[in-house]
């Protein structure tokens, strides 16, 4: 009887989470349908993209300034657009993370996030991270996997993402970026509507398998095999 009650609570919790996700997506679509894309919206997106590029390549300070200006323009004249994007992204994140992870402790949501994993040994576990603006530096060289196959869901609005993967580790990547640049192993995509699906040749036979599910509106992604 106790197990049945627990299962019932789990199903009820999953339904509630799904309903929350659908409400977020619905409100976001409604706001988006009532918004008009204009010159300043496009300018803001261009400034944010250039800012991300400068942060990665040569001038972090200038890059953050450009990103800040772009965000101010978006928030100033297009608050409903920005809110719509955030709500839709968060709604899809709820759906995806609940499909993959049952433990709430593995799910992290924040407006601004700076993740740095890998300077010392750390536990690699199934995790989902969502943020509006994020900087994620992940080195899997010293990672101690909790199980043979681990899934990381990285999702949000704007991100600068760097991941280092040792060559003996099996890696599978599904990446979707609307605006930006993605360098994943030997593949490089830039511009608009970039989607990449790739895995290392040793993925099926490796002792440790890592699946990366990446989805951002604007991002600069660099995944290296070393």
UniProtKB/TrEMBL annotation:
Chain ranges passing through the membrane: 20-52, 64-95
Top-rank lineage group of the source organism: Bacteria
UniProt domain Cell wall-active antibiotics response LiaF-like C-terminal: residue ranges: 112-223
Key words, A-Z: Membrane, Transmembrane, Transmembrane helix
UniProt-recorded name of the protein: Cell wall-active antibiotics response LiaF-like C-terminal domain-containing protein
């Amino acid at each position: 009887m106790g197990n049945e009650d627990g299962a019932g609570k789990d199903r009820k919790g999953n339904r509630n989470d799904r309903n929350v996700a659908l409400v977020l997506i619905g409100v976001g679509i409604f706001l988006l349908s009532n918004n008009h894309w204009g010159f300043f919206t496009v300018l803001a997106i261009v400034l944010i993209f250039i800012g991300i590029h400068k942060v990665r390549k040569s001038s972090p300070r200038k890059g953050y300034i450009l990103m800040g200006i772009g965000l101010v323009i978006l928030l100033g004249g297009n608050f409903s657009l920005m809110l719509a994007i955030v709500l839709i992204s968060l709604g899809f994140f709820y759906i995806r993370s609940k499909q993959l992870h049952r433990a709430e402790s593995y799910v992290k949501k924040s407006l601004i996030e700076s993740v740095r994993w890998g300077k010392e040994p750390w536990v690699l576990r199934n995790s989902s991270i969502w943020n509006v603006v994020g900087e994620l530096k992940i080195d899997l060289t010293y990672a101690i996997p909790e199980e043979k196959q681990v899934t990381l869901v990285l999702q949000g609005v704007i991100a600068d993402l760097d991941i280092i993967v040792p060559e003996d580790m099996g890696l599978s990547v599904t990446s979707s970026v609307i605006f930006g640049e993605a360098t994943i192993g030997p593949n490089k995509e830039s511009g608009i509507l970039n989607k990449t699906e790739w895995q290392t040749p040793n993925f099926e036979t490796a002792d440790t398998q890592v699946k990366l599910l990446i989805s951002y509106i604007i991002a600069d992604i660099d995944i290296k095999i070393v």
